[in-house]
Each structure stands twice: as structure tokens, then as C-alpha cells.
UniProtKB/TrEMBL annotation:
Species classification: Eukaryota, Metazoa, Chordata, Craniata, Vertebrata
Protein's name according to its UniProt entry: Cyclin N-terminal domain containing 1
Any GO CC annotation of this UniProt entry: site of double-strand break
SUPFAM superfamilies per record: Cyclin-like
Entry's Gene Ontology BP terms: reciprocal meiotic recombination
Limits of the Cyclin N-terminal domain: 54-178
Pfam families: Cyclin_N
Record organism: Theropithecus gelada (Gelada baboon)
Length: 330
């Protein structure tokens, strides 16, 4: 890289609550709610999600190495996921329009898969670089920095190939890469909670929310699988139930209230009911749904590295989460 960079705690520097006019907050909250409703409706036709824990961790660690804000790492994951879903849809579409020839079809699948594999690291880094360009609080990651990083991993590329990779991501997503992230919903709801007289300070909740949001991204599938089983009261959901549940995974307002409720329980469980009540009145989400989601987050995040669990989170993030929980109980 250009030089050694020290990771810093992103999204906490110079961050303040309670400085925005209430009219502005009301307008912004309404806009987020409308945006969320549209995303939930559009999710019904999607194939699914592409969110491997190791890939998410890669994006998070790379963002820390390049000193990017937390919002950038979340947006990079969202861009990468939608790009990969588009790639999968394109492969399926090509397979349906080509003449039926089992041998040729198998070769085409292997060729397309190998092409994705060969360029995946380049595409991932391009998603991080594109996300950094959308943030006003970050320096844009230079092409030299990216090329040096890829070379250190054994991937030799030119500046032209790097630009072509960014353009490929942009074209695949119709240049719609300024995607919402759950963090925007979390911070907006924390702002409203502060004006509503929440007993737990917004800044304390914010720090814990960032940690739990990291863990939800890393443990995305097991958390939502447990939420699905709880919602249908059945340990073996059908394929149809799973497909219908895809829209729930795109409900960032629901995720935000679950994150905040879980953070409130960690910070001060005696104030949990008050915080949840405020969240219910603000969003209209049922108390039972908030409780179920916060319980799913807590059970998976705090117990992620206990013996006997198949799912585990990266040690450095697990330690950070457990330290947060321990310090809040002292």
C-alpha cells in the first residue's frame, strides 16, 4: 500500500446527537420509512442473498485497514451482495436461452463460474472503492493503493482493468449504488429516541449498536433462520416460507429496532421496556416482533463463541462484543 495505515474506530469521531432540527428529523425519518417499504416490496422477486461471513469479514478488515467509516463497510457489503445476485441472475438467464446441449451447457456453467472466481477479489475491492467515493467523510481510495493491495495478494492488474471492474459493477446495478444501509436507520432512530427522552444516552447505545450490527452482518443467515423458525413456530421451515421471508431480510427498519433494543438490554436492561416502547410508537412495529428480533441478536452475538456452537464469529470481533457486554455489567 502507499504506506502503513492505522485502523481507527470509525463512525465515532466527531459524531453527535441532538443537533439537528426536529422538522429535519421528521422528514428524514419519513423518507427512510418510504425507502424501506419500497425495498421490502422489491425483495419479493429476488433469488436470495449472497453474504458469506468470511467475505463480510474481509470487507470489514479491509475497510479498517484503509481507515474507512463503518457506513462505508456496510455499503460495500450491500453493493457486493447485489452485484453477485445480479451475476447469478444473468447466468441463470443465459442458461435458459441457450440451446439444450448437456455437454455444452456444463462447459458454459464451468466457464462462467471460473470467470466469476478469477475476478471476485477484484470485484470485491471495486465495491469497497466505490462505497468510499459515496461518503463525504472519507478520502477516496486511490487506484495505486488498490493495485498495491491486490498485488500483495498475488493478483496483478492494471489501472485500466481496475476502472473496467468499477464500470462493470456500476453497469450491473444500473449505476444505483448509493444503497441504504441499516446504520442509517439505527442512527435516525437513536436521534428520535434522544428527543423522546430515552433514559439510555444515545452515544452509549450508538457504540454498542455498531458492534452488534457488525455481528448481524457476520451472522446474517443463522440470525434470520432463527427468526424465521420463531415467527412460524416450526423448526423446519418449508422452501416457500423461506422464499417469502426474503422480504424480511430487506426490512432495515425492523433490523434497526432489533439492534437498538438489543443494545439497550446490554447497556441497561432495566430501561429496556421503555426503549422498546419508544421504538414501537415511532415505527409501528409490534412489540413482539421487536422482542423476537432483539432476542435472536443477543443469543447469537453473545453466545457466538461458546463451546459446541457450529457458527462462530471472527475472534477480534467476538472479543469486542463480549468486552462490551462485560463492561456494561460492571
Amino acid at each position: 500500500m502507499d504506506g502503513p495505515m492505522r485502523p481507527r474506530s470509525a463512525s465515532l469521531v466527531d459524531f453527535q446527537f441532538g443537533v439537528v432540527a426536529t422538522e429535519t428529523i421528521e422528514d428524514a425519518l419519513l423518507h427512510l420509512a418510504q425507502q424501506n417499504e419500497q425495498a421490502v416490496q422489491e425483495a419479493s422477486g429476488r433469488l436470495g442473498s449472497f453474504r458469506e461471513p468470511r467475505i463480510v469479514e474481509f470487507v470489514f478488515l479491509l475497510s479498517e485497514q484503509w481507515c474507512l467509516e463503518k457506513s462505508v463497510s456496510y455499503q460495500a457489503v450491500e453493493i457486493l451482495e447485489r452485484f453477485m445476485v445480479k451475476q447469478a441472475e444473468n447466468i441463470c438467464r443465459q442458461a435458459t436461452i441457450q440451446p439444450r446441449d448437456n455437454n455444452r451447457e456444463s462447459q458454459n456453467w464451468r466457464a462462467l463460474k471460473q470467470q466469476l472466481v478469477n475476478k471476485f477479489t477484484l470485484r470485491l475491492v471495486s465495491c469497497v472503492q466505490l462505497a468510499s467515493k459515496l461518503s463525504f467523510q472519507n478520502k477516496i481510495i486511490s487506484n495505486i493503493t488498490v493495485l498495491n493491495f491486490l498485488q500483495a495478494l498475488g493478483h496483478l492488474h492494471t489501472k485500466e482493468e481496475l476502472l473496467e471492474s468499477e464500470l462493470d459493477v456500476l453497469k450491473s446495478l444500473n449505476f444505483q449504488i448509493n444503497l441504504p444501509t441499516p446504520l442509517a436507520y439505527v442512527e435516525m432512530l437513536l436521534e428520535v429516541l434522544g428527543y423522546n427522552g430515552c433514559l439510555v444516552p444515545a452515544m452509549r447505545l450508538h457504540a454498542t449498536c455498531l458492534t452488534l450490527l457488525d455481528l448481524v452482518y457476520l451472522l446474517h443467515e443463522p440470525i434470520y433462520e432463527s427468526l424465521l423458525r420463531a415467527s412460524i413456530e416450526n423448526s423446519t421451515p418449508s422452501q416457500l416460507q423461506g422464499e417469502k421471508f426474503i422480504s424480511v431480510k430487506e426490512d432495515f427498519m425492523l433490523l434497526a429496532v432489533g439492534i437498538i433494543a438489543a443494545s439497550a438490554f446490554i447497556q441497561n436492561h432495566e430501561c429496556w421496556s421503555q426503549v422498546v416502547g419508544h421504538l414501537q410508537s415511532i415505527t409501528g412495529i409490534a412489540l413482539a416482533s421487536i422482542a423476537e428480533f432483539s432476542y435472536a441478536i443477543l443469543t447469537h452475538s453473545v453466545g457466538a463463541n461458546t463451546p459446541g456452537r457450529q457458527q462462530s464469529i471472527p475472534p477480534h470481533l467476538a472479543a469486542r462484543a463480549l468486552k462490551t457486554v462485560a463492561s456494561s455489567n460492571t
